Amino acid sequence: MMSLRRSLLVLLSAATLLGVPACSQIKVHTVYDRSVDFSAFKTWSWATDEGMLINDGSLNPRIYNESNEKLIRQAVERELGQRGMANKPVGDEEAQLVLFFTVTTEKMVEVGGLGTNPYNLQWSEDVASRQQTKGTLTIGVFDRSTRKQVWSGWGSRPLTPGEEPKPVIDMAVAKLFEDFPPKQ
What is the distance between the alpha carbons of residues 127 and 132, in angstroms, rounded to a whole number? Predict the structure, then answer.
């Protein structure tokens, strides 16, 4: 048991030293229309110049703000630019793809101290709960000519109070576009 604890401590220490918190990994999912030839797309635009942050109603100013909106747009523009795709102005007919994004948050409560046996839960005086916010970024991609959504990606992770948004947004967007355009 002691060697397992020591191994976990070494692993967590290494993750901290590398600047990658153990709980910071983003879980990403993507879906796309397999009948679409993504290699044909060379241009894109945003669906609108207006703010796109659709929320859950909490309007937490640390999450839903103009600065984060700009950071998301910049990260998407950078990722698509690295893939050789040209960003066109909103409404430009030359834009083959049209993109949007949303950000949502969800409160989670983690309860500990109820025992470890799933068949015989036991109460403990050491019961503790912790509230956390999970953030989800969703990006949708539409084919302008068919007006159909051809790709969607979303990623979620717990958010840490006081965390700088730029590295989190950059990581999330990079991870979402890791396999974009899809290879068929």
Answer: 17
Q: Are 57 and 175 in contact (CB under 8 A)?
A: no
CA separation (Å) from 16 to 58, 90, 101, 123, 157?
A: 31, 42, 31, 33, 17
pLDDT tens, position by position, 77-124: 999 999 999 999 999 999 999 999 998 888 877 666 555 555 555 555
Pairwise CA distance, residues 81 & 36, whole Å: 21
Residue 69, domain CATH? 3.30.160.670
Residue 14 inside a domain? The answer is no
Whole-number Å distance between alpha carbons of 63 and 69: 9
Domain containing residue 84: 42-108+130-184
- Give the number of domains in the chain: 1
Reported pTM:
0.74
> d(Cα 107, Cα 136) in Å, to the nearest integer?
12
